Amino acid sequence: MSNSLIRVHNLRKSFGGVKAVNIDDLAFKSNELTSIIGPNGAGKTTLFDLISGFQDEDEGQVFYKDKNITNIQPYKVARLGMVRTFQLTKVFDRMTVLENLMFAGSEVSNDSLLQSIIRTPKQKEYESLLMEKAIKIMKDLNIEQMSNSYARELSGGQKKLLELGRSLIKNPEVLLLDEPLAGVNPKLAEDLLQKIQNLASQGITILMVEHNIEAVMKISERVVVLAEGALIAEGPPQEVRENQKVIEAYLGTGDE
Amino acid sequence: MKLPLRWAVTLLLTIFSIYLVFVFNEEGPLRILINLLTFAGIYGLAAIGLNVHFGLTGLLNFGHASFMGVGAYVTLLLIPHAAGREGEITESGLPFLLALLIGVIAAALFGLLLGLPAIRLRGDYLAIVTIAAAEIFRLLVRDLESITGGVYGIINFSEALQKYRPAFLESFVSNYELNPSQVWVGLLSWTSILLVLLLLRRLTNSPWGRALRAVREDEDAVRALGKNAVWLKLQSFMLGAGIAGLAGVFLAFNYGSLQTTTFVPLLTFYVWAIMILGGVGSLTGPIFGSIIFWVIISETDKLASLIFENANGQQLAGVRFVLVGLLIMLLMIFRPSGLLGKKEELLLNVK
Q1: Assigned domain for B25 exists
Q2: Which residues on A lie below 8 Å from B203 (Cβ)?
Q3: Are A31 and A203 in contact (CB under 8 A)?
Q4: Is residue A87 located within the same domain as residue A121?
Q5: Neighbours of A116 (CB within 10 A)
Q6: Which CATH number fits the domain that encloses residue A84?
Q7: Residue B266: Cβ within 10 Å count
Q8: Which among A88, B86, B278, B324 could bridge B286 via Cys, Cβ 3.0 to 4.6 Å?
Q9: Residue A101 lies in a domain
Q10: How far is the CA of B199 from the CAs of A116, B237, B283, in angstroms?
Q11: Could you give the count of Cα atoms lying within 13 Å of A11 in the half-sphere of its Cβ?
């Protein structure tokens, strides 16, 4: 209990008759890179939605640092330091890359209407610091040349990078990455993977939903397997890979 | 160079519209032009408010008329006026500026009140609720006769504003046989536009404006980044409603009497047409959109009478709506971002 950062307990969510999530107990440890895998419709994204507050559970609780965060608003979850990305990338299309990042990094108090009318020196100073921070992140992610382009002009892979950058500028403690490699070219995927691994080594706890099994096995410290909403296996990558249930439900025998 | 071309076309069209007023009206064109520009100023102001909702934040508000109505009713009831069938004159009242301030705040608060339950709705659903709320407001005002004057409306309030009319205006307008009261209202509404635009220019380029644009682009992402999207939308709703309230007050003073029928959904649709014509998301677009729109509204029957020689007045009056519809269709085909809207920021594709 003590070293589990996120814990879900008796978590149930159904859509009509379909049990999307049906997990008795599942915990994620601090400073660990955990991947969540499973066939389509296994409830991976729904689990993310439940943890991050985007959907309300039918039953059960979600704990973050032993604090009950069940049913609290997504923005409040994010303010606790847990930031998620989306399976279908959600960038702010008609804002520039820089604006995307600066909005994400801006504190709530900096966005205030009153401050924005008066344009306090404090706000100006904050904004210039924020811009430096955003530029640093763009450089790290190799998208600084797109700084002033509208986000919708980016390629699919660049959008993934931008979404990651937008989460990073918030200095998160936990990152929930929903298919960060989907639709990304192999070269960029490798970079992204390296990036994610670096983040993990910097002490960010990462939960990742991903279908790219090679990638998952390569970088995860722990793998959680879901099928039809239920937890069927969890453990170190190698162990999970050899688990008979996992092979049947998801991985297949490998002789394609 | 996209920008200058866009501006050149807009300015040319605006000047051409004003020129048409002189062509079609051999007698007293200036009088008609001033009348038209006053309406254009008031509706333009309302459209600027709507642009805060839709252009900046992506909120589909189809109840704009009610915000204008709240501003107008609250302000007029606070200054000396005569309401209802008996038309009893209330001599006492607040000074105009104070009443105006309260009226604008009331409109903003009405925005909050309507927004609290409704703002969580997305896209079309918000549109449905706002148009219904605006109708409820109008019918309520009509039925609360003891307070609002009901169908008899409110009269005798103009003096509260007109007593501040500077003397030089009188001597100036008398040379041209203009109505000094209207010139004064027109002047004030265009001054308001200027002030509101200065405020909005400051705001749209600020962190606050950036946050609203983010809400417009993707609410879920905003929430995932720790921002309270509902509260941001409510703020936008209140600001735009307040601006609409201001426009509503000027509209009442321009008519000289206040009727509930002014705030029918048609008013909202006019404001929408102006915003679309001028360019969704463009700060200054609604001004030009409004001028061109009002020239079309007021001059097309004259144009039509040249074409359809035997048509009567009623038939001709219908032509204007055909032309407005046609214009919006052409606009959607050839310039969907409006006169001054940016093509890259085309906003008329609500998800």
Answers
A1: no
A2: 113, 116-117
A3: yes
A4: no
A5: 21
A6: 3.40.50.300
A7: 12
A8: B278
A9: yes
A10: 10, 16, 11
A11: 32
Q: Give B-chain residues touching A78 at CB under 8 angstroms.
A: 223-226
Residue of A nearest to B214 (CA): A92
Rounded Cα distance between B157 and B166, Å, is: 18
Nearest to residue B193, comparing CAs of B56, B83, B45?
A: B45
Spell out a b/e string for B230-239, using b for 16 or more CB atoms within 10 Å of the CB, else e: bbbbbbbbbb
ipTM, two decimals, is: 0.92
Q: Which amino acid is at B293?
A: F
Residue B280 structure tokens: 């969704």
DSSP state of B291: H
Count of all residues that appear for chain A in the document: 256
Give the pLDDT score at B3: 60
Tell me the one-letter amino acid at B179. Answer: N
Cross-chain residue pair A90–B235, CB shorter than 8 Å:
no
CA distance B44 to B40: 6
Does the beta-carbon distance from B208 to A116 stay under 8 Å? Answer: yes
Return the amino acid letter for B22.
F
CA distance B118 to B74: 23
Its domain, for residue A220, covers 4-91+160-251
Contact list in B for residue A79 (CB cut-off 8 A) is: 226
**H or E element in which residue B235 lies:** helix B229-255
Contact A117 B344 (CB under 8 A): no
Amino acid at B43: Y
Q: What's this model's pTM, rounded to 2 decimal places?
A: 0.92
Helices (H), chain B: 2-24, 29-51, 64-78, 96-118, 124-143, 145-148, 159-162, 167-174, 180-204, 207-217, 219-224, 229-255, 265-278, 285-307, 313-334
The range of the structural domain enclosing residue B41 comes to 31-264
Q: What is the DSSP string of A145-156?
A: GGTTSBGGGS-H
- What is the C-alpha end-to-end distance of chain B, expressed in Å? 30
Asked whether residue B35 is assigned to any structural domain, the reply reads: yes
Best residue in A51, A77, A106, A154 to probe B by mutation, most B CBs within 10 Å?
A106
> Is the same domain home to A128 and A225?
no
pLDDT band at A1 (very low <50, low <70, confident <90, very high): very low
Single-letter residue type at A35: S
- What is the per-residue burial (b if ≥16 Cβ within 10 Å, else e) of B56-78? bbbbbbbbbbbbbbbbbbbbbbb
Cα torsion through B34, B38, B40, B43, rounded to 10: -170
Question: How confident is the model over B74-87, as pLDDT tens digits?
Answer: 999 999 999 988 87
Q: Do B235 and A113 touch (CB under 8 A)?
A: yes
Structurally, chain B folds into a number of domains equal to 1
Which residue in this structure is represented by tokens 């500077």? B166
Q: Is the dihedral angle over the CA atoms B196, B201, B205, B211 positive or is it negative?
A: positive
Sign of CA dihedral B173, B179, B180, B186: negative
CB atoms within 10 A of CB B241: 33
Q: What is the dihedral sign for C-alpha B306, B312, B315, B316? A: positive
Tokens representing B65 are 């008329």
| Count of CB atoms situated within 10 Å of the CB of B329 | 10
**Could you report the per-residue pLDDT of B289-328, keeping only the tens digit for each?**
999 999 988 888 787 788 777 878 787 778 778 877 888 8
